Amino acid sequence: MSRNSEIPILRTILFTSLALIAFAANSVLCRLALGGGAIDAASFTAIRLFSGAFTLLLILVLRREKSLIPRQGSWISSLMLFLYAITFSYAYITLDTGTGALILFGAVQITMILISLFSGNRLHVSEWAGMALSFGGFVYLVLPGVSTPSPLGFSLMMFSGFAWGIYTLIGRDSKNPLQDTAHNFMRTIPLITILVVVALYQAQYSIEGIIYAALSGGLASGLGYSIWYAALRGLSATQAAVIQLLVPVIAAVGGILFVGEVISSRLAISALLILGGILMVVLGRYFFVYRQTT
Fold it and tell me: How many domains does the chain have?
């Protein structure tokens, strides 16, 4: 029996759905905080990661874990988490939302698929077609707002996507998602300290910005990433890469609900393309490969 077949599919669907909602919530909170100038990028990142570490540590205490010393997770995962968060925040200083989202999720997808291919995995034609359809729908969603990005902003967001892709792939081997995520966040504290000291002279923040950053860290990041680690146990690398293209659609809906954006036919069409492509990737291997060999 394969690894994926051992994971209850309903649990995987639930955890994946919750994680994607958390990712989208991060996007909305980031837009509200950084786009509105309520806080600077370094302070947002520091509060976000510290809030995530504090929230997860509190959960471990309430669960009466025997040891709170970071022994699970890894320093590599923590470094990737920090690099993703800091480059994501600074990239949005020079990139608009559509351009940044396209670069980020494109980089995540490319990173995970290339590593999967280099690891010896081969994709069925249906999976290639599904990825192309999903990415085409994503481009259709954000293309009207795409402008020529600054070289620095483009590089930072590409690196952010690369870091998140690595963090996700490492998380697929997690045996205890909550502890691994908590310890990954706790290991970022030394990096947070260095960031605060270096960027102290340009810090600017408001109560509103602090609240956005704390919510992003404690709920959308800390708990959200724990759930994502749990979901990854039932997803292939290809599925995890393509499914994340749902986040911009969910975030757009969040923008409609919380930022007052208007529903458009473009959003509806792109959502259908992305969902259809994801369905092809998720079900393609089962119908065209697995069923032919059983």
Answer: 1
Helix boundaries (H) for 172-223:
177-187, 189-199, 207-215
Which backbone phi and psi does 213 adopt, to 5 degrees? -65, -40
CA distance linking residue 28 with residue 31, whole number of Å? 5
Q: What is the DSSP letter of 289?
A: I
Q: Where are the beta strands (DSSP E) in 22-171?
A: none
pLDDT tens track for 225-283: 889 988 888 887 777 877 887 887 888 788 777 766 666 777 778 878 887 887 787 77
Q: How far apart are CA 271 and CA 133, in angstroms?
A: 11
Tokens 């995987």 label which residue? 12
Q: Model pTM?
A: 0.80
What is the span of the domain harbouring residue 93?
4-293
CA 171 to chain centre: 12
Residue 98 CA, chain-centre distance (Å), reads 16
Whole-number pLDDT of residue 180: 86
Separation of CA 124 from chain center: 25
CA pair distance 216, 21, nearest whole angstrom: 12
Q: Are 256 and 263 in contact (CB under 8 A)?
A: yes
Task: Tell me the Cα Rg of the chain.
Answer: 19
How far apart, in whole angstroms, are the C-alpha atoms of residue 278 and residue 272?
A: 10
* Residue-level length of the chain: 294
Six token digits for residue 202: 């340009």
Q: Report CA torsion sign: 43, 46, 52, 58.
A: negative
What would the DSSP string read from start to end of 46-59?
Answer: HHHHHHHHHHHHHH
User: Which of 277, 288, 274, 252 is CA-nearest to residue 97?
Assistant: 252
Q: How far apart are CA 153 and CA 96, in angstroms?
A: 10
